[in-house]
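hiii, so i know i said id send this last week but things got crazy w the move. better late than never?? heres the sequnce for the chain we talked about at the cafe, plus the structure i predicted for it. fair warning i was half asleep when i ran it
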Amino acid sequence: MKDISVIINTFSKEDKQEFVRFLKKKNQRGDVKNLQLFKLIDTGKQQDLDILLYGKPSKNAYHALCKRLRDSLVDFTASKGFSGETSEEMEIMKLLLAGRIFLEQKLNKTAFKILAKAEKEALALDLHPILNEIYHTKIQFAHLNPNETLEEVIQASHTNMERFKKQFQLNMAYASIKKQLKNPGDTPITEIILKHFTVFNIKVDATLTYKSLFQLLNITSTAAALQRNYHEVSSFMMEIYNIISEKKGMAQKHLFYHIEILQLMAVGSFRNKDFKQSKEFVAKMEAEMQKNNRQYYRRFKDKLLVLKAMNLTYTGYVNKAVHLLENSKNISLDSQLTLCMCFFQQSEFSKAYQVFKNFTHSDHWYDKKIGWLWVLKKSIIEILLLVELDKLDLVLSRLQSFKKRFAKPLKKAGEERVLTFMKLVSDYYENPEQVTTDTFKNKVETSFDWVGTHQEDIFVMSFYAWLKAKINNTNPYKTTLELVS
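okay and structure toks below
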């Protein structure tokens, strides 16, 4: 049952509705216990499910039902994947299969026309594994093709194999980079990336495929998020983006990756407090989302919403950000946390807490669903909210839980300053009067290694702004804007 819960937790509200329709269509009899089981697990029920379903203990029937539901979830997920961004690959695979069938049926002229079309489309999308299969088929039946020599096919196959080998080297480099990024120490992110590229004899240039450049940009952005250091990688990310931009005509062939790239650049610009550039990338992202009959709009709409709201918030238009978030349908976890943050910065703590109470799952659930960095941010916001609302027992409980939950991973990531900040929050709550004293001000100033306004991460500055507003008795939102501008 655990793996069923894990799969269901990855589904959006729309996915769940679509899966219910999928199950109803699949069920060929009136027995809908698979649907009942899905709804029970989705609502968080875990105990005595066999009794709830059958009215009595029925372990064998229950386990068989779990297997059928799990198989249906896998089938649905796979079908949905094939109908999504991999649709072009599937169409090429269909062409390849049709070509092989026609060759077996001696329809050689038709078969080679279809294989030529499959090859052309696969080359345009850099689908080297599929091209291997196409060339394997063309070599096998080369004696039947009067329009292309065996030598030409072999040469094309060798060229593709070299590109496939390079892609394989890239995958090994990415795996090595990800492994080191778990324990990066003091090594700069770009140095880690370039070191492993050198080991596998890879250069960051226009010879990399569109997908490879996206992967490189993605891993760079992920590493920057983990280390809260987008400033260090900003020029490297822009270098990659400029190479991608030179691949004219490829963006529409790789629309999904193109939207992802624009989103990563928008986030990077925002985290570096370049709001003008971030808004430009957001506008480009939204324009691309409209293409192909809005094929990927639903996939990216939540990310787009959060980026718009965050850029509005940090350029002085927090009310517009709130309006945007409150009027959005099916608001995501990220959007809810952003709305909570907007209310908090405006000192509307009761409203912020009402939004926060929508987070009803455990931290472990959110960790699995969206990642520990999101849980960290949520936990900090919750503690600051509880401090402002003066909920004594909850503040003490959450501070204790925070230290237990995050001390080890934060120290491992070299982010002891988060623990230092939470200690200062605790000190303030125990004795609020001390916050305006020179002693407390000096304590704050000497507790952190400041890297400067230009380099510091925007979210780190936002949390510090709350403390600075307490020290100077100023408006927290205005203090935040002053710090990041």
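btw The mean pLDDT is 88. thought thatd interest u
miss u guys!!
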